[in-house]
Amino acid sequence: MFKKSTIGFFLICILVISATFYPVDAYITKPGGAYPLEPLVSVQGGDEDDKGSMSLMTIALSKATPLTYVWAKVSDQQKILQTNQVRNPDEDDEEYNVRQLHLMSQSQFNAIQAAFEKAGKPYEITTKGVFILNVLPDGAADGFLKAGDRIIKMDEVASDNQQSLVDYLREKSVGDVVTIQIERDGKTESIEVELKPIPSEVSRAGLGISFTEDKEISTTPKVEIKADEIGGPSAGLMFTLEILNQLIDEDLSKGYNVAGTGTMQETGEVGRIGGIDLKVIAADEAGIEIFFAPDDELPEEVLKNNPSLRSNYLEAQEVAEKIGTKMKIVPVKTIDDALAYLENLEAKK
């Protein structure tokens, strides 16, 4: 028979293992790293002799365990996020990852367009199809389509415009069967799907998917971005600056280590992102000297419901002061704000 001490030892081991590895319904975020963009972004024939650097910032996100949850509670450099703060309703882990990678792809698209607009260089936009982000459980497409599929055609309707598919489905009834041509893992196949009621609109037939137009941009000179393992849209601003830095002869960085965060709109506007406090900490640890932060304006209704909410810039400033960094936090509303700051910056000796 086992001695009581042996049984106790095994129980303690089980508790330690459970606390270390058993997942709970929450996520932990903490500072990630600074990734220099020159190795990730390549403009054909572009300028490569710049002295400074442009970097994108990341945060680390992981599923919480009892042990990491407790540690995050007492840590100044970790945050706890509930699942509904990370994933959309009815979105599983795979669909979350697909959405994050698509957001990164979209941020690259917008960055290239904004940079080429600023540089006055030619580009062309084409629609590749409709990209599936999410398939609702028990919806018509459940078991047939999945996140990451690209719809090429539905019956005889091409998907070069997502509105054309929406209009086509609007004329259909529950029980109708549509043939969908998709691209999956580089291969094309056709799938028949019987339409069901849309959960939110039971009187209307649909596929039970969320989707977005998938566009492609062709440029002269050609741009290649290798950031497949980094998700989310927050690198848009820094992608734009790095592409511009390679498109023109001058060194936009003026010899400094420049980083920042913010989404990039086709219009050149810089948008709000999450986790900027952790990115400021990561930037300081990486020796970044200049950090661009979105100077977003929060709607009154949002502030009314969340009175403690602050703009990205103000939050970044507060964290910078708290950690005592010498890094300069620069507010930007548009790509022009960032360019104006760099243009007026004295070159580093």
TrEMBL record:
<dbReference type="InterPro" id="IPR036034">
    <property type="entry name" value="PDZ_sf"/>
</dbReference>
<dbReference type="InterPro" id="IPR027065">
    <property type="entry name" value="Lon_Prtase"/>
</dbReference>
<feature type="active site">
    <location>
        <position position="279"/>
    </location>
</feature>
<dbReference type="InterPro" id="IPR001478">
    <property type="entry name" value="PDZ"/>
</dbReference>
<keyword id="KW-0645">Protease</keyword>
<protein>
    <recommendedName>
        <fullName>endopeptidase La</fullName>
        <ecNumber>3.4.21.53</ecNumber>
    </recommendedName>
</protein>
<dbReference type="InterPro" id="IPR008269">
    <property type="entry name" value="Lon_proteolytic"/>
</dbReference>
<comment type="similarity">
    <text>Belongs to the peptidase S16 family.</text>
</comment>
<dbReference type="GO" id="GO:0006508">
    <property type="term" value="P:proteolysis"/>
</dbReference>
<feature type="domain" description="Lon proteolytic">
    <location>
        <begin position="229"/>
        <end position="345"/>
    </location>
</feature>
<feature type="domain" description="PDZ">
    <location>
        <begin position="111"/>
        <end position="171"/>
    </location>
</feature>
<feature type="active site">
    <location>
        <position position="234"/>
    </location>
</feature>
<dbReference type="InterPro" id="IPR020568">
    <property type="entry name" value="Ribosomal_Su5_D2-typ_SF"/>
</dbReference>
<keyword id="KW-0720">Serine protease</keyword>
<keyword id="KW-0378">Hydrolase</keyword>
<dbReference type="GO" id="GO:0008233">
    <property type="term" value="F:peptidase activity"/>
</dbReference>
<dbReference type="InterPro" id="IPR014721">
    <property type="entry name" value="Ribsml_uS5_D2-typ_fold_subgr"/>
</dbReference>
<dbReference type="Pfam" id="PF13180">
    <property type="entry name" value="PDZ_2"/>
</dbReference>
